[in-house]
Specification:
By secondary structure, this protein is mainly alpha-helical. It has helices at about 10-20, 30-50, 70-85, 95-105, 115-130, 145-155, 170-175, 190-195, 200-230, 240-245, 245-260, 265-270, 280-285, 285-305, 330-360, 380-400, 420-450, 460-470, 480-495, and strands spanning about 1-5, 25, 85-90, 130, 135, 160-165, 165-170, 315, 320-325.
Length: about 500
């Protein structure tokens, strides 16, 4: 089934389906009239000869240089070639697909002055599986994601490199194999393709969706840790969270109550437990995870708006005027990426403290050292906990805001930049680290709960443990753990633990 994207009305759920499920997409055909009308306006401007930035002038600091009508097509071709200056590893296929879909939505608003043929080329490449090779580094998030988007535009022209299926080849060959013809750009079209925040936005959306999934998974692993440590469920009572009123906290508390319901372990120490309060990493889970959820929801609103935005320059307005502005400046995305980074760092930080609690016999209320049945001869999860600490520290370092690090570029014409693209790109590594931390907690929590036998945890957490144990067996003696830690991380990344939350899953996007 193909997802129809309506410019201005694309939802986070649509974008998540494109990213995680490889959903096929097409632009709503009703957008064609507005697109063609704006293209016609650009053609009229070319014929009139009045100076219009990027149509019959140079770019950036060279905006005062006039370009003849005969050279307007060459101007766009040269623009793309000169801006293909990205470096580093290519973006993953799913990110590139999302970039292309976002560009479709933006151009489909009918304010960019491009022909429908350009949109058809993007759609056909997506449908055929021709994905441009887009280097990850080179954008400062100023006049849009110039370098990475230029690599996308070059592929549409049959230049640079693309993937066709899993094979990397020259873009001209990829287009030929797919039965497509290289596109010749007309006035304004190259500029419309490379101005815009679509790469930054796609990377930020990937970070958002992965952070949200990991955050939900951390509710499951946090509940396992709570039962493993024989922690109290009293801090999760609904009245506590309603008195504060923070929505994310209320949702997180409800999920934890749902997960811990009907636990024999909990009932076994409800009376006579000498401990008055649990450490914050157990007791304050709703407050910390909930604050992260609220922050991520705020980010979601920003990125949903940006996904539907027109962010190139100049823009063709409804009255027919062609006006230069600054919608390509990616400050909203940069701020959003910084907020995601904070949430990711904090979710990992509190999860790591729960892991530390479980492996420490001085804190874990009767669990063996490092969760080994025979500590001393065996080291159990000693170094798995150290690994989680290393990942946590790395994320803390990366959480420094990228948006404050502006630097002048392009001969001081672009004298304030957002740094949105690499601010969002770091989220891929940060969320991978978080997934690994949550995966380690899943193994530690399951191991700890098993030590409470014959007492059982609640049915929902037993379901989660079954998922874990199908992939990683209990640790009875020391063995090679690295591969198992990566397996546990994949369970988090794929959302395999979330079935335990059925009926009580906090939602990222409000459904209207």
């Amino acid at each position: 089934m193909t997802l129809t994207l309506t410019p201005g009305a694309v939802r986070l759920a649509d974008l998540q389906a494109i990213l995680f499920e490889g959903q096929a997409v097409r632009l709503d055909a009703q957008a064609r009239d507005a697109v063609e009308a704006s293209a016609a306006q650009i053609e009229r401007a070319v014929e009139a000869g009045a100076p219009v930035y990027g149509v019959n002038t140079g770019f950036g600091k060279l905006a005062s240089v006039r370009i003849s009508k005969e050279d307007t097509a060459a101007l766009q071709r040269n623009l793309i070639r000169s801006h293909c200056a990205g470096v580093g590893e290519p973006l993953d296929h799913e990110i590139v697909r999302l970039v292309m879909a976002l560009k479709l939505v933006s151009l489909g608003r009918g304010a960019s002055g491009v022909r429908w043929a350009l949109i058809e080329q993007l759609q056909a490449m997506l449908e055929a599986g021709v994905l441009p090779v887009i280097p990850a580094q080179g954008s400062v998030g100023a006049s849009g994601d110039l370098a990475p988007l230029a690599h996308m535009a070059a592929a549409m022209m049959g230049e640079g490199e693309s993937y066709y299926g899993d094979a990397r080849m020259k873009s001209a060959e990829a287009l030929q194999r797919a039965g497509l013809t290289p596109l010749t750009l007309r006035a304004k079209e190259g500029l419309a393709l490379i101005n815009g925040t679509q790469v930054s936005t796609a990377l930020a959306l990937a970070g958002l969706f992965r952070a949200w999934r990991a955050g939900l998974s951390s509710l499951v692993t946090g509940a396992l840790s709570t039962d493993a440590a024989m922690g109290s469920s009293a801090p999760f009572r609904v009245e506590i969270h309603e008195l504060r009123g923070q929505p994310g906290q209320i949702d997180a508390g409800a999920a934890l109550r749902h997960l811990l319901a009907d636990s024999e372990i909990r009932e076994s120490h409800r009376e006579g437990d000498e401990r008055v309060q649990d450490p914050y990493c157990l007791r304050c889970q709703p407050q910390v995870a909930g604050a992260a959820f609220d922050l991520l929801r705020q980010v979601g609103r920003t990125l949903a708006i940006e996904a539907n935005a027109v962010t190139d320059n100049p823009l063709v307005l409804e009255d027919g005027s062609i006006v230069s502005g600054g919608n390509f400046h990616a400050e909203p995305v940069a701020f959003a990426a910084d907020q995601i980074a904070l949430a990711v760092a904090e979710l990992g930080s509190i999860a790591q403290r729960r892991i530390s609690l479980l492996v420490d016999p001085a804190l874990s209320f009767g669990l063996p050292a490092f969760l080994s049945p025979n500590p001393g001869l065996n080291s159990g999860l000693m170094i798995a906990e150290v690994t989680s600490a290393a990942l946590m520290s790395e994320n803390r370092q990366r959480a420094h805001p990228a948006s404050v690090d502006s630097t002048p570029t392009s001969a001081n014409q672009e004298d304030h930049v957002s740094m949105a693209c690499h601010g969002a790109y770091r989220l891929l590594a940060m969320t991978a680290n978080l997934e690994r931390i949550i995966g380690i907690e899943a193994l530690a929590g399951a191991q700890g709960v098993e030590f409470r036998a014959p007492l059982k945890t609640g049915p929902r957490l037993r379901d989660a443990m079954e998922v874990i144990r199908r992939s990683v067996p209990s640790l009875t003696e020391d063995r090679y753990l690295s591969d198992e830690l990566e397996t546990a991380a994949r369970l988090t990344a794929e959302g395999a633990l979330l079935a335990a939350l059925e009926g009580q899953v906090p939602q990222l996007e409000e459904v209207s």
